[in-house]
Amino acid sequence: MRKKITIAIDGFSSTGKSTIAKLIAKKYNYIYVDSGAMYRAVTLFAKQNNFVGKEFLYEEKLISKLKEISLSFKFNEKLGFAEMFLNGKNVEKEIRTLAISQLVSKVATISEVRKKLVAEQHKMGNKSGVVMDGRDIGTVVFPNAELKLFMTASADKRATRRYKELIDRGDNVSFKDILFNVKERDRIDSTREDSPLLKADDAIEIDNSDMGIQEQFERICTLIDRKVKES
Ligand code: CDP
Ligand code: CDP
C-alpha cells in the first residue's frame, strides 16, 4: 500500500485551496479538513449572539461561551465533501456569505478561539492521509507535515473568482465589496499577533493567478507523488 502523508495548504483567500484539497482527498482517499469553515462557524455563533458586528467585537463574551460551541464535519455523499455543522445544525451555506467573510478575520485574531480550533484540528488530523487548508496549517497546526503548499494569486483575480462564485449561487454582492474584503482579510490575517498568515520556510509557493484548477491540481499531484515516493 502507498504511504499516506500529511498535506498542509496555506495561502490567501480564493486561491483554490479548498477546491484542490477536495480533489486531493478524492483522488488519494485522504481526509479533508477545511479549517476556515471552523473559524467561519465560530464567527456565525458570535454573530448570532451579537458578540461581533462591523463596528464591535466583544472578545470576553465570546471567550466565555466557547465551551458551548460544538463543531463537526459530516460527509455528504451527494456533494462529495464534508459539510460544517454548528451545534448540530448544518451551517454550510450560511458560513460562506459575504457577511461572515466580513467578520471572520476579526474573530480569528482571538487567541482563545485559535487554541480551541487548533486542538480540534490536531485531533482530526492525527493520522496520516490528511489534507488540511487554512492560514497556519504548515506553520502552527502541522509544522511537521511532509508536504506544505503556499498559494498566492493577485487580489484582483481572487476577487473575480469569489465574486463569480457568490453570484452563481444567487447572493446579491458587489465586486467592489468582495475586492475590499479580500484585501482587508489579507491585511488582518497577515498582521495579527497570534499565528499570522506566513509561508513556512519549507513550503512550496504556487502563484495561480494565471492557472486553471486542472493545471494547479496536476502540478500538486506531481508534488504529492514525489513526496510519497521519497518518504
Ligand atoms: O476560503 P477563504 O480563503 O475565503 O477563507 P477561509 O479559508 O474560509 O478562511 C476564512 C478566514 O478564517 C480567514 O480569512 C482567516 O481569517 C481565518 N482562518 C484562520 O485564521 N486560520 C485558518 N487556519 C483558517 C482560516
Ligand atoms: O479555498 P480558497 O478560498 O483558497 O479557494 P476556493 O474556494 O477553492 O476557490 C475560489 C474560487 O476560485 C472557486 O470558484 C474556484 O473554482 C476558483 N478558482 C479558479 O477559478 N482557478 C484557480 N486556479 C483556483 C480557484
TrEMBL record:
<dbReference type="GO" id="GO:0005829">
    <property type="term" value="C:cytosol"/>
</dbReference>
<keyword id="KW-0067">ATP-binding</keyword>
<keyword id="KW-0547">Nucleotide-binding</keyword>
<dbReference type="InterPro" id="IPR011994">
    <property type="entry name" value="Cytidylate_kinase_dom"/>
</dbReference>
<keyword id="KW-0808">Transferase</keyword>
<dbReference type="GO" id="GO:0036431">
    <property type="term" value="F:dCMP kinase activity"/>
</dbReference>
<feature type="domain" description="Cytidylate kinase">
    <location>
        <begin position="7"/>
        <end position="224"/>
    </location>
</feature>
<feature type="binding site">
    <location>
        <begin position="11"/>
        <end position="19"/>
    </location>
    <ligand>
        <name>ATP</name>
    </ligand>
</feature>
<keyword id="KW-0963">Cytoplasm</keyword>
<dbReference type="GO" id="GO:0015949">
    <property type="term" value="P:nucleobase-containing small molecule interconversion"/>
</dbReference>
<comment type="similarity">
    <text>Belongs to the cytidylate kinase family. Type 1 subfamily.</text>
</comment>
<dbReference type="GO" id="GO:0006220">
    <property type="term" value="P:pyrimidine nucleotide metabolic process"/>
</dbReference>
<dbReference type="Pfam" id="PF02224">
    <property type="entry name" value="Cytidylate_kin"/>
</dbReference>
<dbReference type="InterPro" id="IPR027417">
    <property type="entry name" value="P-loop_NTPase"/>
</dbReference>
<dbReference type="GO" id="GO:0005524">
    <property type="term" value="F:ATP binding"/>
</dbReference>
<dbReference type="InterPro" id="IPR003136">
    <property type="entry name" value="Cytidylate_kin"/>
</dbReference>
<keyword id="KW-0418">Kinase</keyword>
<protein>
    <recommendedName>
        <fullName>Cytidylate kinase</fullName>
        <ecNumber>2.7.4.25</ecNumber>
    </recommendedName>
</protein>
